[in-house]
Amino acid sequence: MTRATAGPMRVVVCGTRFGQVYLSALAQAAPDRFQLAGIVARGSARSVALAEEYGVPLYDKVEQLPDDIDAACVVVSTAVGGGRGVDLAQALLERGIHVLQEHPVHPTELADCLRVARRTGTQYQVNTFYPHLEPVRRFTAAARRLIQLRKPVFIDAMCAVQVSFDLLDILAGIFDGLRPWSVAPVAGPAGRPLVSVEGQIAGVPLTLRVENRMQAGDDSSSLFLHRITLGTDAGNLMLANTHGPVIWSPVLRIDGRGVTADYVGTPETPTWAGAMDEVWGEGVLAALDKLRERVDSGVDPLQGSQRHLTVARAWKELTEALGYPEVAEPDSGDPLTVADLAGQPESGRV
């Protein structure tokens, strides 16, 4: 039986690189819902500084955690990224601590963690992160409604290789799964910045282009994150960027009725500062809310986990089709604005 939580859920964050996003989110959470209770890290200068900034203890071993810790956000690379994230997650589960683990996770490791969670009466959830962001949720909700109304014809998508796991989870959220699923590489010359694969998701033809390259030691240097177009016999719904906007483009009407394109929700997108401070933080709390709902309901840890197991297996097939990422050293230089492209003085961002 899953151990329920009375009062605020006391949460520790493991890892302080991308874990900084989780720390910021928890620090801004409603005090009656979540409480940041500590950091688990190896003791780098960054970890020490963050523990001081947030006024919480710094632990370097799971064994040091007090007994009143309810949950842990494991934001440490798993074996697929050369890290010890899964070992850390299992050690926490053995302590009776619920775990939210940052993706990606190899399907075998994911299944192992779920078995440990079931045995120890805890909850284990993979956080694919981006599906919890408001613009992606808006796109997913509209896409689900669209395929109820009209027939899906194709999916055309682009992503960076390090966010391919969550791209598959976004699509699984639209179609309530991925099956029937298949993927195969498209032959092309070596050295391309984008590698193409074709296949199907939920029986719908898929074309996917992946930036299968990364800068050494920095997975945040990609040229983009996600772009997804769902095509139907009535028109196309596009998530232009991970942070929006979401655009509906109806099919051509010779009779002139309707519009050529319209926004689903706001046309505005956040600044990068706003995305990281607000949109990402809200997404972390949305994922933690789902974990807490499972804890409070006492559901079997295996119930509802099939989607992430399917996504993990599909992601493994996808990465095998793509091949090992190439090393890239992009130099983005100074930021460019719309005014730069128009050759005009910047008038301010809408």
Describe the structure.
The protein has 350 residues and is α/β, with parallel strands linked by helices. It has two domains: 9-127, NAD(P)-binding Rossmann-like Domain (Rossmann fold, 3-Layer(aba) Sandwich); 131-270 and 316-327, Dihydrodipicolinate Reductase, domain 2 (2-Layer Sandwich). Helix content is 34%, strand content 23%. The strands form three sheets. It has an eight-stranded mixed β-sheet with strand order 8-9-10-7-12-13-14-15, with helices on one face. Strands 3-2-1-4-5-6 form a six-stranded parallel β-sheet, with helices on both faces. Strand 9 and strand 10 (204-211) form a beta hairpin. Helix 1 (19-27) crosses helix 7 and helix 5 (134-149) packs parallel to helix 6 (164-175). The radius of gyration is 21 Å and the shape is globular. The mean pLDDT is 92.
List keywords for this structure.
single chain, 350 residues, alpha/beta, Rossmann fold, Dihydrodipicolinate Reductase, domain 2, 2 domains, 8-stranded mixed sheet, 6-stranded parallel sheet, 34% helix
